[in-house]
Specification:
Elements (H helix, E strand, L loop, with lengths): L3 E9 L5 E8 L4 E5 L6 H16 L7 H11 L6 H22 L3 H4 L8 E9 L2 H13 L4 E6 L28 E4 L1 H19 L4 E5 L6 H11 L6 E3 L9 H8 L4 E3 L6 H9 L5 E2 L8 H12 L5 E2 L9 H13 L6 E2 L7 H4 E3 L2 E3 L2 E3 L8 E3 L1 H5 L10 E4 L4 E2 L2
Parallel strand pairs: 4-5, 4-12, 5-7, 6-17, 7-8, 8-9, 9-10, 10-11
Antiparallel strand pairs: 1-2, 2-3, 4-15, 13-16, 14-15, 17-18
Helix pairs in contact: 1-3, 2-3, 3-10, 5-6, 6-7, 7-8, 9-10
The protein binds 2-keto-3-deoxygluconate (KDG) and magnesium ion (MG).
The site of 2-keto-3-deoxygluconate (KDG) has 10 residues, from loops.
């Protein structure tokens, strides 16, 4: 039996903050997990360091399900982003270890490849419609088969999804205090269909088109958006309303055939249960790192399969390369894969995280290195200490706080 002999937490900021858990076994095998919770990183680091790492020492490193249940049920206090991100980090580190011991990539342990590669979508944005079109072109030229489109709304200073500068990564978290963005639902609803029309007019229908509403609409507003986008055959609209109110999706559903995706802030199978079993959504966007790791996310996707709901895992740049790689393994192996978000990571991450995934012709593959296929360089990580960074807040034109 290989026991856990060490568990350490590393907070590093190669451009943005990442929290990494490293577990070592009595056989000298190491595994890593992502414990990053954007803007609340130190809470998870403390949860792990102060309350979880001491409990791991001496446990059998190969009893993944047992350790998951021990941390989930044993704490008494269940669910929530901090707890579930911490459990996810332990879970992924243990799957990494199991893969290394077996000499197999994680996707082989999960049943092997169910497809040749994982379709990913890139993030096109623009301050104007012509800029957005140029950016969509850039992704299509690189072989992407799916593109998310977000354009600035005329009259608003800054809205969700506007990339600053070049590259692929949209990184909204910065500054030691949250910045303030502005919002006007009417202006947004009037404008979005016009730029989706421009995208389809220029590039046609030979690729998948996606859009993130980022929780900003009421149910009836979301219904109107879905209807108005039907001619542009969206792959999905995401987070149309804040998903605490799950009945809202029933109302949206009754009005539109535009597919609905939700779940990037969900933490457990229970957050997904109602939406899946009532067939209120088409894609579930829960992530490895925020929804309890491979062990829990696999159960979410298994629950979704008989209801015709497909996966659409969150893959923003604040999910470290560790959980992104784990997501690729899961995507490759499940029957009901839908789409994987790929926002890429800010340049500089490669110094800390050496990855083995590949991208070709719009498809990603996690690679065949044993485990999850990401190496963590502790010395490089130590060169980039934690730097406080917060997500923005959102205000309406009259100053009211709105959903961001
Ligand atoms: O940390 C928050 C981001 O991950 C989120 O704003 C990104 O909505 C997002 C997306 O779809 O990638
Ligand atoms: Mg989103």
């Amino acid at each position: 039996m290989a026991t856990i002999t060490d568990a350490t937490v590393h907070v590093t900021c190669p451009g943005r903050n990442y929290v990494t858990l490293k577990i070592t076994t009595s056989d000298g095998v190491t595994g890593i997990g992502d414990a990053t919770l954007n803007g609340r990183e130190l809470a998870v680091a403390s949860y792990l360091r102060d309350h979880v790492c001491p409990l791991l020492i001496g446990r059998d490193a190969h009893r993944i399900e047992d350790t998951w249940q021990y941390l989930y049920k044993g704490a008494y206090w269940r669910r929530g982003p901090v707890t579930m991100t911490a459990i996810a980090a332990v879970d992924v580190a243990l799957w990494d270890i199991k893969g290394k011991v077996a000499g197999l990539p994680l996707y082989q342990l999960l049943g092997g490849a169910a497809r040749d590669g994982v379709t990913v979508y890139g993030h096109a944005s623009g301050d104007t419609v012509p800029e957005l079109l140029q950016d969509v072109q850039r992704f299509l030229d690189r072989g992407f088969r799916a593109v998310r489109a977000q354009a600035a709304v005329p009259g608003l200073e800054r809205v969700y999804g506007q990339r600053k500068g070049g590259g692929d990564t949209y990184e909204p978290a910065d500054g030691s205090l949250p910045s303030v963005e502005d919002w006007d639902t009417g202006a947004y609803l009037d404008f979005v269909p016009s730029y989706m029309a421009a995208v389809r007019e220029k590039f046609g229908y030979g690729f998948q088109l996606l859009h993130d509403v980022h929780h900003r609409l009421t149910p009836i507003e979301a219904a109107r958006l879905g209807k108005s986008l039907e001619p542009y055959r969206m792959f999905w609209i995401e987070d149309a309303t804040p998903a605490e109110d799950q009945e809202a999706f029933d109302l949206i559903r009754r009005h539109t055939t535009t597919p609905l995706a939700v779940g990037e802030i969900f933490n457990s199978v229970f957050d997904c249960q109602h939406l899946i079993t009532r067939r209120l959504i088409d894609y579930v966007r829960a992530s490895v790192s925020h929804a309890g790791g491979v062990t829990q996310l696999r159960k979410i996707f298994a629950l979704a399969e008989p209801y015709g709901v497909r996966s659409g895992s969150h893959g923003a740049g604040d999910l470290s390369p560790v959980s992104f790689a784990a997501a690729l393994h899961l995507d490759l192996s499940i029957p009901n894969f839908g789409m994987q978000e790929y926002m890429a990571h800010l340049p500089g991450y490669e110094e800390v995280f050496r990855t083995s995934w590949t991208f070709e012709d719009g498809l990603m593959h996690p690679g065949d290195a044993p485990g999850i296929g990401v190496e963590f360089d502790e010395d490089a990580a130590a060169r980039y200490p934690y730097s406080p960074k917060y997500l923005p807040v959102n205000r309406l034109r009259d100053g009211s706080v709105h959903d961001w």
